Amino acid sequence: MRTRWFVSAVLCMGVSLGLAIGVVIGVFMSFMVTAVPAIAAEKVKLVVAEWGSQVYWDLHEQGIAEFEKLHPDIDIELWRTPGNDAKYWEQIMVRAAAGMMPDVFRVWSTQQTEVFRYGYAMDLTPLVQKDSEFFKQFVIPPIALDGKHYAIADMLIVNYLHFNEDLMKTLGLASPDDLYAQGSWDYQALENIAGKATKRKADGTPEVVGFAMVVPDHYYVGPWVQSFGGAWFDDNYSKVLFNQPAALEGLRWVQQQFVEGRFFPMSQYRPLVLAGQFGFNFNWSLPPAPGGQYGNTNVGYVPWPRGPQQDVSTYRTEPWAIAATTKHPGEAFEFVKYMASDGIRFMIAAQGKIPNYRPNMGILHDYAAQFKYGLRPLQEQIGKIVPQPMAPQHSRVTAILYPAFQDITEGKVAVNVAMEEAARLINDLFKWSN
After folding, report:
1. What architecture (CATH level 2) is domain 158-315+393-433?
2. Region 309-338: what's the mean pLDDT?
3. CA–CA separation, 6 and 12 (whole Å)
4. What's the pTM?
5. DSSP run (H or E) holding 364
């Protein structure tokens, strides 16, 4: 009996001691958990590259600050890159070669095709398709090449013609704006008014230029080829189409205007334009108030004239792309979506000059009252804008086309001869680049 009692007592004591030790350990561990602070989850860092000016960057920083509040787990570093498109892109390539490609980067219009085709930009197609409802608010959809989306636009730059209101009144000419409202604004009306607006001195030197055009230019002498029913390239940039009959007809009409003295190269006659001695000039922004770019001249704007085959105007855009090398594609996509929608309102509210630069119509309506022309400039072009061609190897393509354009506008060579030779060279280039 005693032995049993002793054994039972020992067992009870052991159990009690074990429970006590367990309680002590539990209390100790509880204290340790309470006493040691939890390690905060590491933030996702995104590097964003943008060119521009101090004011431009500061406006982006406002959008970034709001995005970071909405996404406290994401930290944005804005890489501010001064300089033009060539300098900016050179620095992007240097970073890419060093394995420091930014997660998100602005793409200059002339590099868009190369950015995706050569693997710098991520294929956004699955993300865009998943969020298709979100993108219905934009004037232009996510930019695509070969059936795949690779960039999101928060800018839309539509081409306009500025016209000299004072000169039109002095000469008793119909206002292009009135002709547009009447449905009579077409390429022949432009030809007629530009001819009457041109004025020359006794020695033949231009005193007032009818229409000053940027030739040669990145935008392929405006949408004349498209408005005459032609195209510059096929959709995949595998071959040229500017040597086909419709395109050649448009370029012959352009050559005729230059040779007969109604159109003038902007590079040669810019001083006359800035002095208000012009009928029309090509521009991608809306005209300033008197006292601005053209001195005290009253200047209006009109959309590109209707062609014989199509009523079109060209646009360019400078979109956001996400680097193919990013380790945070989901977070980068959320940032780009925000900057192209709610985040763009800081730009709209602060600049308020050119409403067609911001393609989110819902947000633009909130600021329409502060624009000189309201939303009319954009609304009247939405249904007819087509993208300006941005071929791969853009600089090499333009190195071929520029001299051809120059010779055409100076009447040195027949259009079909110049374009056939350019087509041969560029088709060879496409075979190599594709």
Report:
1. 3-Layer(aba) Sandwich (3.40)
2. 92
3. 10
4. 0.79
5. helix 361-367
